[in-house]
Write a structure and sequence with these properties.
By secondary structure, the protein is of the alpha/beta class. 20% of the residues lie in helices and 20% in strands. Strands 6-5-4-3-2-1-14-16-15 form a nine-stranded mixed sheet. A seven-stranded mixed sheet has the order 7-8-9-10-11-12-13, with helices on one face. Strand 2 and strand 3 form a beta hairpin.
Length: 381
C-alpha cells in the first residue's frame, strides 16, 4: 500500500490531487444558486469528495503505465483564408484548441508548459509536445480559460500570450486578480450565463459545468469554473473545458439552442467512484454530445498529462465503444491528431475561399469538413 501511494505521488498525480484540497475564505459576492457566501458549488452535485476520499484514491490507486514520450505528426494549416460560416480547428494538446473564424482567432485553456503543476520539478509531465510550436501561433485575439487547475490555467503560457499578442482573456469569477498579479492584462471575469460581445458578429456566453476549482491547499472553490458558448453569425461553438456529466448540458441546449460544434472532455475518469463527479467518461461524453444536440463533437482533455488511472489509449477505445453502443457514427465525435487542422463548414452557404480547400465528405446534418492542402493527404484519425 505504501509503495503504491509512494509511486503515485512521485509520478506527480498525487501532487495534483492533493492540491485540490482546502477551504475557501469569505468573499464579498452576492449569493446565487452556485455561490453560498463562502464558496462556489455545483447545484447539480453540491457535495463533492473531501479529504479522506482523496486519501483513499491515492492509497488504492493502480495507475496504468504511460509512455515516457509520444511523437506527434503535426500538419497545421493556420492561414487557410476562411470565409463566414467556416471554422478551422487545430487540436494543440489536452484542452488547448485553436479555433479560427474568418478574421478572428480563439485559443482555449492554453498550456505549453512542461508540467501541469505549481512546481517545475514534480507534478504531471507532458508525454507529447504541443501540436503547434508557440512561436508558430498566428495572432490570438481571444483566450478562454475554463477554470484555475494547472492543466487548464497555465500562468507561464498566459504571460507569454499576453506579452506577444495582448489578447482579450476571459476567466471565471475569482480568477482575474491572480492573472493581473502576474502582469497579465485585458482580463475579464464572468459568472454563469454572462455574455460578452467580441465583434459585431461574435459573442461568448459563459455557461455552467459540474467541476471545482483550486490551485493550493486553502483555496478550494474560491473561484468559479465553467464552459463557453461562442455564437458567430448565428452558429454555436461550445468549449466544454472540464466537467463531470450532469443535467447542465441539457440546460445549455434549452437556453441557447442546439450546438453546431462542441469540444468535449473524454479523459481522466478512472476510478469512476472518485472521478465521476468532476470528469465524465467517454460514454458520458457521448451523452453530453446528444444532450447538446451537437452536429459535430471533438474530443479534448486526454493523452497529454497522466492525471488518473486509465492507460493513455483507453479514452479513445472507450469512446469508440460508446459511440457504437448508441448507434452514433464515429465521425460525429472526432478524435483529432495533435497539430492537424480541420476546417468545418458551419453554414451550408459557406464555400471554400481558396481552390486548395478540398471537400472530404458530404454528411447531411453532420458538419462537412475540409483539408487545407489538396496536395497532401491527411489521416485524421
Amino acid at each position: 500500500m505504501r509503495q503504491t501511494l509512494s509511486k503515485h505521488i512521485l509520478s506527480g498525480v498525487g501532487i495534483y490531487w492533493l492540491l485540490s484540497l482546502g477551504c475557501s475564505p469569505m468573499e464579498n459576492r452576492p449569493l446565487s444558486d452556485h455561490y453560498d457566501g463562502r464558496r462556489f458549488y455545483n447545484p447539480t452535485h453540491p457535495q463533492m469528495h473531501g479529504f479522506w476520499a482523496t486519501v483513499k484514491f491515492l492509497v488504492s490507486a493502480k495507475p496504468a503505465p504511460w509512455p515516457e514520450f509520444v511523437e506527434n505528426h503535426p500538419d497545421p494549416h493556420l492561414d487557410c483564408g476562411l470565409v463566414s460560416g467556416q471554422a478551422a480547428v487545430t487540436f494543440v494538446n489536452h484542452s488547448t484548441v485553436l479555433i479560427q473564424l474568418a478574421g478572428y482567432n480563439i485559443l482555449t485553456d492554453p498550456v505549453w508548459s512542461e508540467r501541469a503543476s505549481p512546481l517545475s520539478w514534480i507534478g504531471p509531465k507532458r508525454v507529447r509536445e504541443p501540436g503547434i510550436a508557440f512561436d508558430a501561433l498566428p495572432r490570438i485575439d481571444l483566450v478562454l480559460v475554463s477554470h484555475n487547475h494547472y492543466d487548464h490555467m497555465d500562468l507561464d503560457t498566459l504571460k507569454r500570450l499576453s506579452k506577444r499578442f495582448a489578447p482579450r482573456i476571459l476567466v471565471p469569477l475569482g480568477d482575474k486578480a491572480l492573472l493581473e498579479s502576474t502582469g497579465i492584462n485585458r482580463v475579464e471575469e464572468l459568472d454563469w450565463w454572462q455574455k460578452v460581445e467580441l465583434t459585431p458578429e461574435t459573442q461568448v456566453i459563459f455557461t455552467p459545468t459540474q467541476h471545482f476549482s483550486s490551485r493550493g491547499l486553502f483555496d478550494r472553490n474560491k473561484s468559479l469554473w465553467g464552459s463557453y458558448m461562442i455564437r458567430n453569425r448565428g452558429h454555436l461553438i461550445y468549449f466544454g473545458g472540464d466537467a463531470g456529466y450532469s443535467s447542465h448540458y441539457a440546460q445549455i441546449r434549452a437556453r441557447v439552442g442546439p450546438v453546431d460544434l462542441a469540444f468535449l472532455p473524454i479523459g481522466a475518469y478512472e476510478p469512476n467512484w472518485f472521478m465521476g463527479p468532476v470528469h465524465m467518461n467517454p460514454a458520458e461524453a457521448v451523452k453530453a454530445h446528444s444532450d447538446l444536440g451537437s452536429r459535430q463533437s471533438v474530443a479534448i482533455h486526454f493523452r497529454t498529462f497522466r492525471l488518473t488511472e486509465e492507460a493513455i489509449a483507453r479514452p479513445i477505445l472507450d469512446l469508440k465503444a460508446a459511440l457504437a453502443s448508441q448507434g452514433i457514427p464515429e465521425d460525429d465525435f472526432a478524435v483529432l491528431e495533435e497539430g492537424r487542422t480541420r476546417i468545418y463548414t458551419l453554414s451550408t452557404n459557406a464555400v471554400p475561399s481558396e481552390p486548395s480547400l478540398t471537400r472530404r465528405r458530404e454528411s447531411g446534418r453532420r458538419l462537412d469538413f475540409y483539408r487545407c492542402d489538396a496536395a497532401q493527404e491527411v489521416a485524421w484519425k
